[in-house]
């Protein structure tokens, strides 16, 4: 009678004991045996350490070819003819060399190549465009812990500043596009017998069709960054934008004198 009463409790204790042993076995980390060093592993899924990344540099015995741009990791093994050992862009694999995408330095890697802080906003924006190419062309692996992301894959303060600068460059590009729509460039042709002619149509300069023609105007003060001629809407003349010498203000075509070029 006593045994039948105690038996369920004994079975319960045995089950608990077995569960404790099983948990201890499953939770035992690889490499925890005495005398064996535990391998370095990522602290978050999709985040690589520098040591892990170095295993994908294309050297003999490596696991493949990983390229990093702005802290994002891509598998470029399918482009081995470009990124493999001895190839033109091999310097890009196994580390983050983001700055080289605009500096053109492909010879020898240095840790400073991941630092883009000395670049202009527009140059950083160019690197982002390169990143878009890799997004479309190669498999995305994850993030590199370090300058741009922490061990959990969260953006660092450095990364946030870079993104702010990219946003500023994008805003400037949009503003320039608006200015281009407001002041499109003229059509320009040169002939030896007649010289340079500029003219406006509804499809002037950059080839964009619009609903107005405009009149050719030049900048009162020249600048290498300014076009030779822009098309201005009717009544849009300003002190900065003036008719070409010897050309009627209402004309849609003008010949440009050499001194105005």
TrEMBL record:
UniProt cross-references to InterPro entries, sorted A to Z: Cyt_B5-like_heme/steroid-bd (IPR001199), Cyt_B5-like_heme/steroid_sf (IPR036400), MAPR/NEUFC/NENF-like (IPR050577)
Taxonomic superkingdom: Eukaryota
Domain Cytochrome b5 heme-binding, chain residue ranges per copy: 48-145
GO terms for cellular component: endomembrane system; membrane
The keyword Transmembrane belongs to this UniProt entry's keyword annotation: yes
Pfam families: Cyt-b5
Keywords: Membrane, Transmembrane, Transmembrane helix
Keyword Membrane: yes
Transmembrane segments: 6-26
Protein family (similarity comment): Belongs to the cytochrome b5 family. MAPR subfamily.
UniProt-recorded name of the protein: Cytochrome b5 heme-binding domain-containing protein
Protein source organism: Culex quinquefasciatus (Southern house mosquito)
Gene that encodes it: 6044773
């Amino acid at each position: 009678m006593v045994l039948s009463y105690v038996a369920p409790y004994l079975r319960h204790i045995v089950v608990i004991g077995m569960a404790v042993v099983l948990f201890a076995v499953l939770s035992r980390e690889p490499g925890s045996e005495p005398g064996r060093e535990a391998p370095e592993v990522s602290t978050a899924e999709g985040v690589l350490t520098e040591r892990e990344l170095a295993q994908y540099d294309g050297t003999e015995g490596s696991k493949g070819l990983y390229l990093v741009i702005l802290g994002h990791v891509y598998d470029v093994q399918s482009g081995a003819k470009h990124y493999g050992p001895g190839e033109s862009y091999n310097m890009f694999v196994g580390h983050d060399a983001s700055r080289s995408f605009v500096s053109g330095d492909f010879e020898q890697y240095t840790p400073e190549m991941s630092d883009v802080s000395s670049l202009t906003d527009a140059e950083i924006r160019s690197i982002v465009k390169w990143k878009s190419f890799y997004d479309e062309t190669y498999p995305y692996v994850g993030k590199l812990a370090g300058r741009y992301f922490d061990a959990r894959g969260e953006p660092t303060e450095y990364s946030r500043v870079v993104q702010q600068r990219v946003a500023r460059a994008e805003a400037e590009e949009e503003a320039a596009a608006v200015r281009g729509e407001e002041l499109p460039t003229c059509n320009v042709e040169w002939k030896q017998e007649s010289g340079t002619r500029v003219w406006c149509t509804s499809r002037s300069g950059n080839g964009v069709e619009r609903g107005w023609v405009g009149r050719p105007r030049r900048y009162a003060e020249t600048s290498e960054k300014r076009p030779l001629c822009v098309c201005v809407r009717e009544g849009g003349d300003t002190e900065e934008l003036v008719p070409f010498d010897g050309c009627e203000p209402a004309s849609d075509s003008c010949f440009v004198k050499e001194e105005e070029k």
